[in-house]
Design brief:
Blueprint (H helix, E strand, L loop, with lengths): L8 H14 L17 H15 L11 H26 L4 H4 L4 H4 L7
């Protein structure tokens, strides 16, 4: 990564040489993020985004054991069931007796009046 001035020819040569040695002789890519001022953190985010686009990594580095798959599926089902119970609880009508609200005959406080 350079700055607003850019890298010198010596720095570029060093980066290409070191990148070739460390990367196993693969290509060294050069890029510019433009002439605008950016924070170093922004430059890293942008560079990582584009590197992720060209990176060729297997989707799975190792096999997952059948036992672990079983526990993962169990956990997913459990989470779905809990979410469903919460939704049903929120959608259920409120029962007046269960909520502690007085009934219509008890609300006016006069039981024997006709």
């Amino acid at each position: 990564m350079g700055d607003h001035i850019g890298l010198t020819d010596d720095e570029i040569e060093l980066a290409v040489r070191l990148g070739g040695e460390v990367g196993g002789g693969g290509p060294v890519l050069r890029a510019s993020l433009g002439k605008g001022a950016l924070l170093a953190s922004q430059c890293l985010v942008i560079a990582n985004h584009y590197l992720d686009q060209i990176h060729e990594c297997p989707s799975q580095l190792w096999e997952v054991s059948p036992e672990l798959k079983h526990f993962q599926r169990q956990r997913q089902r459990r989470v779905k069931r809990k979410a469903g119970k919460r939704e049903r609880k929120l959608d259920a009508p409120v029962d007046a007796a269960a909520s502690g609200e007085p009934r219509a005959s008890e609300s006016d406080g006069e039981e024997g009046e006709r």
